[in-house]
Specification:
Two copies of one chain form a homodimer. Chain A folds into two domains: 28-138, Nucleotidyltransferase, domain 5 (2-Layer Sandwich); 152-325, Nucleotidyltransferase, domain 5, CATH 3.30.420.40. In chain A, strand 14 and strand 15 form a beta hairpin. Chain A has helices at residues 63-81, 122-130, 139-150, 209-212, 214-226, 233-239, 247-255, 259-283, 292-298, 300-310, 332-338; strands at residues 2-3, 6-8, 14-16, 22-23, 29-34, 38-44, 50-57, 92-96, 99-101, 106-108, 120-121, 134-138, 159-164, 168-174, 177-178, 287-291, 322-325. Helix content of chain A is 36%, strand content 21%. By secondary structure, the first copy, chain A, is of the alpha/beta class. Chain A has a five-stranded mixed sheet, with helices on both faces. The first copy, chain A, starts with a strand and ends with a helix. The longest helix of chain A is centred in the last third of the chain and has 25 residues, at 259-283. The A-B interface holds A 158, 170, 172, 174, 179-188, 190-195, 197, 202, 204-207, 270-271, 274-275, 277-279, 281-286, 312-313, 315-316, 319 and B 158, 170, 172, 174, 179-188, 190-195, 197, 202, 204-207, 270-271, 274-275, 277-279, 281-286, 312-313, 315-316, 319.
């Protein structure tokens, strides 16, 4: 921000501001998408077009202070590329995993983050580090907000965002506004698709996420491998020097026609079709947007397969919702976060 | 309504109305709940207290004109008991099964009603027959609206109504307003609780209604009986001169500790717990209201059992919604319908 003592109004006439306020000229805002593996930062202009970006790995140790320092450093790199310092940004929005309190900036239950054993005041710590006002939101919700405002959902008044990644998250927009219920609406990953079914990472049985979440898929793949089933999944993982079956590894195994990868992704698509159709039977939204790590990586062919898997379970099957892939891609979470400020 | 040329204002001063309008004094309104077996009419005062009621069987033949005539006659009986004629009512609200167009008064897809083979303009026909302005709504939705405004949900800002009867219907109130989506929101009966599970009367597989709807429960009971399983259900039905296993018959069989009735109701409760919990994971509402024919007939002990069956599937299990039985009882649908006018 710069101090402005006079402005030019829409007719081109200069006039002095009463009291000479701090206002933004050529306002740029920052956005950060904090994930379990990477920190993605963007700088956007007034039209939310990305003018610079930076990406760094999420620290694997050091706890909350280390994570906050990495976020600030990643943002600083992006800001520098845009020719500004972070304290010149007209605010920073952050999408964080875990239970996020937008008022206080507290983040708890972020099991994907290192040493995040108890709630930590991420908002105030980050604001201190970057020198601009900082707002926090839930990672899935800000990504869905981004798709609603700027991406695949911008023609819709109501939508369900399906974030297919490590887990299966969801975000709901009804009549143009976010619906969060008492704070936890949109937990579509825990719609039950099979009574007494597979164990979910959440501890419950038969959740959609127990079949479709990447973490659950990996548990299943490891179990099958232990039982002697063949798969290229772990060879690809080792070749890429990874310890987890990240989205790109699944995509590569599918390309290589790996039987186990195909079977587990088929099972995931079936569960997604069933669970998302159930949610649509409840909400009757115009549009379903499929995003998240796996959703974005596997892309359009899998969006079409999820759409097809929904159809047998839709109550109003002659008027199905539009099913669209997330349009903002990998940067969607960070871009969506900029809408918080 | 009566023609009023002068009124007394709040200070007790009589003043002439400009133009002498038709206004209501001691306004009473009518409400009709049209079901597959009975027509229930009520007359309510300004505070929505029931001042008279009447009940007649739904015609089993004759098609839409016969149904409309029966509705008018039932309303006339209730109105007479309240000391008015139907054209003196300050409007009539109707909760109807099927696809109801509130604007045009058209009702289609009402398979529970005799000879309702194509959409029929119930609203205009009924308005003509009763002589007062008539508004139509979906039967489940008006009953849920009634519970929200006047019954179990009146302390809540958001609720899910679970109407457990022949099928399992639902109604959604979010932030104090009905949410209907593109017109069919709340079809919770067709949340899938078991992929590849039991065949539902809707033709799909694994829907909550395939286990919990009274129609599906009856199909299952007849199948089991045919296979030689013992049950008192059909004896009670015959003794009561019925052809269907209505709610009271299930209640009687449970009292008599009939093994098949207990097993099928247990299965229904399990499915309701699973499916309603899934819906709560999506919506995160404050309150769940259990109503409908079976819900109301089986009452509080079964509301508690559904609540218990939900708990293992609730994502935010340390903050479960309040689960309440419908408070307006058998007349709830007709009382809720009066809110339409």
């Amino acid at each position: 921000m710069v101090r402005v003592l006079a402005v030019t109004d829409s007719l081109g006439t200069a006039r002095t501001l009463p009291g000479a306020a701090w206002v933004s000229v050529n306002s740029v805002k920052g956005g950060i998408d904090l994930g379990g593996t990477k920190v993605q930062a963007v700088i956007v202009d007034e039209r939310h077009d990305v003018v610079a970006e930076a990406k760094r790995p999420t620290p694997t140790e050091g706890g909350p202070p280390e994570v906050v320092a990495r976020m600030a450093a990643t943002l600083a790199e992006a800001a520098a590329a845009a020719g500004v310092s972070t304290d010149e940004l007209d605010g920073l929005g952050v999408g964080s995993p875990g239970a996020v309190d937008g008022e206080t900036g507290m983040v708890g239950e972020a099991r994907n983050l290192p040493g995040w054993d108890e709630p930590f005041a991420m908002g105030p710590a980050l604001e201190e580090a970057v020198g601009t006002r900082t707002r926090l939101g839930n990672d899935v919700q800000v990504a869905v907000d981004g798709e609603f405002a700027l991406g695949a959902g911008r023609e819709s008044r109501s939508l369900l965002g399906v974030w297919w990644g490590t887990g299966v998250g969801g975000g709901i927009i009804l009549d143009g506004k976010r619906w969060v219920g008492l704070g936890a609406a949109g937990e579509i990953g825990h719609i039950v698709v099979k009574q007494g079914g597979a164990r979910c990472p959440c501890g419950r049985r038969g959740c959609m996420e127990a079949y479709a979440g990447r973490a659950a898929m990996e548990v299943r793949a490891r179990k099958l491998k232990k039982k002697g089933h063949h798969t290229k999944l772990f060879k690809i993982m080792e070749k890429r020097d990874r310890t987890r079956l990240q989205s790109g590894i699944w995509a590569r195994a599918l390309e290589a026609k790996d039987g186990m990868a195909i079977a587990l992704v088929d099972r995931a698509v079936e569960a997604l079709g069933t669970g998302v159709a159930s949610a649509v039977n409840v909400l009757d939204v115009e549009t379903v947007v499929i995003g998240g790590g796996l959703g974005t990586r596997l892309g359009e062919p899998y969006v079409r397969r999820i759409e097809a898997a929904m159809l047998p379970h839709l109550f109003v099957s002659d008027r199905p919702p539009a099913v669209l892939g997330a349009a903002l891609g990998d940067l969607g979470g960070a871009i969506g976060a900029t809408l918080l400020v």
